[in-house]
Amino acid sequence: MEVRKAGSQKYFGKNRRLDRNIDVVFIGRTKSACRRKSILRLTEVLKKFDLNVKIISRGLYGDDRTRLLNGTRVVVHLHTYPWVTPWMRWNLASANGAAVASEPLSVPTPFTPNVDFLSAELTNLGAEIHKLLQDEPRQLEMVRQCKEKIEKYGTLRVSIDNLLLRISTALSAMKPYLVCPYSGLMIFKKS
User: Per-residue pLDDT tens for 158-177?
Assistant: First the structure.
C-alpha cells in the first residue's frame, strides 16, 4: 500500500521560536474508548516523570493552535486505528518546531521511526518521551529531519508533481477509445 500526503501548507503554522514550556501535547478526538484509555495511561506515566501534559480534544485552530504548538516540545500521536496515517500531526508539529512521538505506524514511509519521529509501543512511549526531552540536541534533530522529509516528500508542489506523473504514466499506457470531434475530449479504455 502506498500513501500520498496532501502537502504541507502555510496555515499549519510557523516556528516563532517561543519558550517551550509545555512538555507534551495531544491534539485529537477522544471519542474512541481505546484512544481515551491510551491517553489516560500515557498521561499517568508522563506525570510520574513530572512532565506537563496538555490534551486538546476539539476546537483549536489558526493562531491559537500555532501559539500552543510553538510552546510545545513534543506532539503525541495515538492511533484511533493503526492503519490511519497521522501526517497532519507531523505537518503541524514540525512547522511549529515540535518533535513528534507516536505508537509504531503500519506504514511510516517516507518517515524513518526514531530518526524523523519518536516511535515506541504505548507501554514504553512515556519513558521514551522522557528520554527524548532530556536530550535536546536529539529532539531538535528529529524536528529538523521531520521537516526536511516533509519538504522533500510532502509539499503540495511535490504531491501535485507526483499525481501528474501518475496520471501521465497511466494515460500513456492507454489508447483512446473514443474522441469527441467537437471538443477533442478523449475517452480511454485500458489496453
Answer: 777 777 777 777 767 766 55
Q: Please state the domain count of the chain.
A: 2
The residues, any chain, with a CB within 8 Å of residue 111's CB and separated by 6 or more, are: 90, 105, 117, 146, 149
For residue 185, give the C-alpha cell.
475530449
Beta-strand pair 72-77/186-190:
unpaired
Whether 4 is covered by a domain: the verdict is: no
Confidence band of 25 (pLDDT split at 50, 70, 90): very high
Do 32 and 95 lie in one domain? The reply is yes
Kind plus residue range of the DSSP H or E element containing 55: strand 53-56
CA dist., res. 65 & res. 69, Å (int): 6
